[in-house]
Specification:
By secondary structure, the chain is mainly beta. The protein is built from two helices and 25 strands. The strands form six sheets. Strands 16, 17, 18, 19 and 20 form a five-stranded antiparallel sheet that branches. The protein is globular. The chain starts with a helix and ends with a helix.
Length: 345
């Protein structure tokens, strides 16, 4: 026999299922989004926080600096970000990594940065940070930092080859790292490796045809079953943007699902939103329109519904989502069975 409180919870879940026609496995959206943005006429980018429906926007970092690339720590209490001392001129010439404590509002520098360090990402256990740098020479390689010991390890070695290794993401179990590798003559591809830098292998297919293919930052799905990245095709002379798509590729089978949008869009960054069904996109809606800005969109993979969450003239970039205390339905934010169970723990 079930205890009384379990009967009540199960009864409530069944009632929701019968009333609304769906079960408790839908996307949780009771969370927060950190992102970088140029707002209110600012020429510099700062780190902002908002609810997952685009409301309650709040600036988190000092307006005197140029701050980009925010990433949540797993506990949701701290945010890792990059402070670009070259003021966002398009080339990373002097960057530093900071950790922002949301409770105190204080940001601290936690490592001795090389001027070329960029794209920091926190491991799922919050103990490591992986990033890209030219510490070893002219080409970019990937490094991992142990936050507790300060030990730094180089994971890739581009050497004298023409190319970059950058834009990383951890698998949910922390055992693997996906990264973008741009090396001639293979072009721009997504690669995988173990978290210790071993067992490197190409994940995406080699480009075919005369067009130049650019593949954007990889992002592992919460289940670990898929890796998401953007894919843009440009003419051989790089003068025309021919197509842009969001690719969801199976880790096990390498089967690719292609999501294209009505206009010739340009996807800058993307992340998952709590499940394998919903993503956040930093996307320029119409690449051909010089007045089109990057906005943050919520995109449902099943229905292919696209919702603009920001819609402001300054430009919004690099969203990263973190779950709130309860898991809820996207529709009407109804508390699910799992949210009730969390409250009882």
């Amino acid at each position: 026999m079930l205890p009384t409180r379990w009967k009540a919870v199960c009864g409530a879940a069944i009632a929701l299922y019968l009333l609304f026609g769906f079960g408790p496995a839908l996307t949780p959206v009771d969370g927060k989004i950190v992102f970088s943005s140029r707002r209110n006429g600012d020429t510099a980018s700062h780190i902002y926080l908002m609810d997952d429906d685009g409301s309650n926007v709040e600036r988190l970092t000092d307006p005197a600096f140029y701050d980009i690339l925010p990433r949540w720590f797993p506990d949701g209490r701290q945010v890792l970000f990059q402070r670009d001392l070259s003021e966002g001129n398009g080339a990373v010439e002097n960057a530093e990594f900071y950790i922002l404590d949301l409770k105190s509002g204080m940001a601290r520098l936690f490592m001795e940065n090389h001027p070329s360090d960029t794209d920091p990402v926190v491991s799922p256990d919050g103990k490591y940070i992986v990033f890209s740098s030219r510490r070893a020479g002219a080409r970019r390689d990937i490094y991992v930092l142990n936050l507790e010991t300060g030990h730094l390890k180089q994971l890739t070695d581009i050497g004298d080859r023409r190319g970059w290794a950058y834009r990383t993401d951890w698998s949910p179990d922390g055992h693997h790292i996906a990264y973008e590798l741009e090396v001639a003559p293979d072009g721009d591809n997504i690669w995988l490796m173990s978290a210790n830098g071993h067992h490197k292998k190409r994940f995406t297919p080699l480009p075919k045809g005369p067009n130049i293919i650019f593949r954007g930052a990889p992002y592992w799905s919460p289940s670990g079953k898929y890796i998401m990245y953007s894919e843009t095709a440009r003419s051989p002379d790089l003068q025309q943007n021919l197509s842009a798509a969001l690719i969801i590729q199976s880790v096990q089978t390498t089967l690719r699902r292609v999501h294209k949008f009505p206009k010739v869009s340009l996807i800058a960054r993307a992340c998952w939103m709590g499940s394998d069904r919903t993503v956040l996109l930093s996307m320029k809606d119409d690449y051909t329109d010089p007045f089109s800005n990057y906005e943050i969109y919520r995109y449902e993979l099943g229905s292919r519904q696209l919702t603009n969450l920001t819609n402001q003239p300054g430009g919004d970039y690099q969203p990263h989502w973190h779950a709130g205390p309860l898991s809820v339905f996207p529709v009407e934010k109804l508390t699910t069975l799992w949210g009730k169970l969390k409250q009882m723990e």
